[in-house]
Design a protein that fits this description.
Blueprint (H helix, E strand, L loop, with lengths): L6 H6 L4 H12 L6 H14 L3 E5 L2 H14 L8 E5 L4 H8 L4 E5 L21 E7 L9 H10 L2 E5 L7 E2 L23 H8 L6 E2 L6 E5 L13 E5 L2 H11 L3 E3 L2 E2 L10 H10 L3 H18 L16 H4 L12 H4 L3 H4 L8 E4 L3 H10 L27 H9 E4 L7 H12 L4
Parallel strand pairs: 2-3, 2-4, 4-5, 5-8
Antiparallel strand pairs: 1-9, 6-7, 8-9, 10-11, 12-13
Helix pairs in contact: 2-9, 3-9, 4-5, 4-8, 10-16
Length: 432
Amino acid sequence: MISFLDLYKINNSFEPQLSGAIRRVLDSGRYLLGDELHNFEHEYAEFIGSKNCIGVANGLDALRLIFKAYIELGYMNEGDEVIVPANTFIASVLAITDNRLTPVFAEPDINTYNLDLSIVEKYITPRTRAIMVVHLYGQACWSDGLELIARKYGLRIIEDNAQAAGAFYVPQFQGFRVSELNRTSETLKPASPTEAIAKVGNAETLKRTGSLGDAAGHSFYPGKNFAALGDGGAVTTNDDELAEVVRTMANYGSKVKYQNIYKGLNSRLDEIQAAILRVKLPRLDADNQRRREIAQYYISNIKHPDIILPCTWYPAPDSYRDGNRNAEPLTTHRSSLTSHHSSLTSSHVWHLFVIRTPNRDKLQRYLTDKGIQTLIHYPVPPHRQPAYKVWNNLSLPVTEKIHNEVLSLPISQVMTTDEAAYVADAINSFYE
């Protein structure tokens, strides 16, 4: 049996350091707001490349607190709009609606599954206050052009970095079309894929997700690449004022005990989880690299005509960039991509390896029979959920196509090449 994610094997690989960290906290007698949290916040902020890190209870709270802080600071008000990718996990949307803000569901790019940055401007209205970018499945969703749009309209950019701890963005890496800006679309895209690839090796051009926007929410749920042994999360930002409000609101809205400045939350990352994360952080880049190796194996060895492999770069064919939403995904043109995948995947941390096929359900049953566990991320998009009936009739064809066809294959830093080979061989042997 190849499990989707073997958490025991992953966490056992950190022993005896994990047990030692837990014992250290137990012996300290301090279980909240202590040295482990303080040190973790400093270390994670340095890793991400952000001035501030605030540990919180979970990833949803991280995003909720960012919006609550912006409301307290007077930047947002009830009913204001936040653009969010329609195919994201429900937590991205809950953070918006929990603050009585209005989500504006935007279509994703059919190739990358991230927010389609080439059309994001059309969703902006006078009520728009922010764009939430979700680095879905572990791939950075960013563009220099996105920053230009945000500045043009005075918007905040909030990152949902729950799935992409350690991922990089390479400037000028993505094709992008921006209307009515001083810079033309031609200056916002690399001259060639080769030029973009060359920048991957230059550390000065790399920025980690979680440091790109105005603020970012992070999740340390046990199944993440960078995971606690329970729930956990963090907010990172370079905005000192926002950080101070988030930190205060996460502690009941209080800086001084029994004195409450805001109507806050009880959302704190405890000392044990902080200590566990400190053990795991130094190995995160190496663990992500192993995931890239498994992903590269899949990309090189899954050869099935009905399977669309993940696309790991953004520049699209001219027909697609010019608005042809029915253009074939880049990944179907295998010959043109083979030489690029190994370099381009360096910006992707492969939290999930997601394929697409119109025969998704049959393939999943077939793989289950072969002893391969797969999952669907996600079977129902947020706008189709009973909790959001007001949006149930929205027509979002790209989103719905993705949700009907995606299937996540096993991938982790402890997966063996033999296991990946078994998965690839099983898929290649699948016939409808």
